[in-house]
Amino acid sequence: QLQASGGGLVQAGGSLRLSCAATGRSFRNYAMGWFRQAPGKEREFVATISSRNSPYYLDSVKGRFTISRDSAKNAVYLQMNTLKPEDTAVYYCAAGPIGGASSFNYLDWGQGTEVTVSS
């Protein structure tokens, strides 16, 4: 299971750090990703990190968001800086053997944590 946390309300320009704790089994050999879904929109890819710690980002978050993982703690994190109102969404963590930007590559999903950025 994946459990996401760390969401909240923040002003534009602020920061939040999302965490995703995995339990039940090790995801050491899996890619871990973050997706988000804004109201009325489809779920979109945000960032992923491979089992070898290689990150990949959605263009609009490059330079503002940083994904990292701690395999010993079976966790993945998303540091979000310089937040914008358009970052408002429910953020989901996910794990999969392939990774990448497609949600179809991820087999395990967390329940989501809500991020609201006020202008």
Q: Could you characterize what this model shows?
A:
With 119 residues, the protein is mainly β. The chain is 0% helix and 50% strand. It contains no helices and eleven strands. Strands 2, 4, 5, 6, 9, 10 and 11 form a seven-stranded mixed sheet that branches. A four-stranded antiparallel sheet has the order 1-3-8-7, with no helix packed on it. Strand 7 and strand 8 form a beta hairpin. It starts with a strand and ends with a strand.
What is the fold's blueprint, element by element?
Elements: E1 2-5, E2 8-11, E3 16-22, E4 31-37, E5 44-49, E6 55-57, E7 65-70, E8 75-80, E9 89-96, E10 108-109, E11 113-118
Main sheet characteristics? 7 strands, mixed
By secondary-structure content and strand pairing, the structural class works out as: mainly beta
Q: Whole-number radius of gyration?
A: 13 Å
Can you give the helix content as a percent range? under 10%
Mean pLDDT: 96
Which runs of at least 5 residues are low in confidence (pLDDT < 50)?
none
Give me the count of strands: 11
Q: Span from first to last CA?
A: 34 Å
The percent range for strand residues is over 45%
Shape: globular
Helix run count? 0
In quaternary terms, these chains amount to: single chain
Provide the succession of SSEs: EEEEEEEEEEE
